[in-house]
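Appendix B, example 12.
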Amino acid sequence: MSQDWTAVILAGGDRPKQFCRVLGSETLLEQTRRRVGRVIAPSRTFFSVTHRHEDYYRPALAGVSRRNVVVQPDNRGTAPAILYALMRLEAVTTSVATAIFPSDHYVSDDGAFMARVESALSFVSQRPDLVVLLGIAADRPEIEYGWIEPGDPVAGSSSWPVYRVQRFWEKPTADVAQHLSGRGCLWNSLLRYGRSSGQTAPSHRAQRAGLDRRVRRARSAAGHRLGDGGSPKRLRRDRLG
């Protein structure tokens, strides 16, 4: 177990399924904590939660240091949750590499899964300029998942091949999903690894992109309401949640 690595477990969102016992006697969050603990020390594991789930996360995280629990006032999506947690992590500790884990995934083989995680963390420890995203071998042309189109191989020492990302495909059509599956593209696990400082930039960009989309939708809606009789007022990003 490395003392150089840290983890962020995402346990927020709108539907608190991570606090449910879906398969087995443990909740999905308990399974995630146990799995992560194979590689990363509990004292170096941080949790991103949402205030509205306090009745669930408070007993579930009893015994966890308050500094390791990052409470969002409201759910604003994955990118802000990651960014907020990484900012806390950088403020209270140092880390060679940080792993981001959703807490609502079911994993059938913890040993095999965490071996890949450990390999990814070792790789980014050698290549701090990179962020590694874990891809899942697709067994069907799924349209409800995001996809990763691999690019060229990346030089470096790793137990498994590492490729640059050529392109992301978010919930493609059936025809596109069939094409991606046939080309050996991967499902996006949303699991990523890298220096915390290196991961804040993508989270900032994702948050800004989401905010820009909301601004455009709001401007469009304002324009439709006004019709041809006027122009919408200028909308400020800092006024849109």
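The mean pLDDT is 84. The helical segments are 28-36, 54-60, 78-92, 110-126, 174-182, 196-226.
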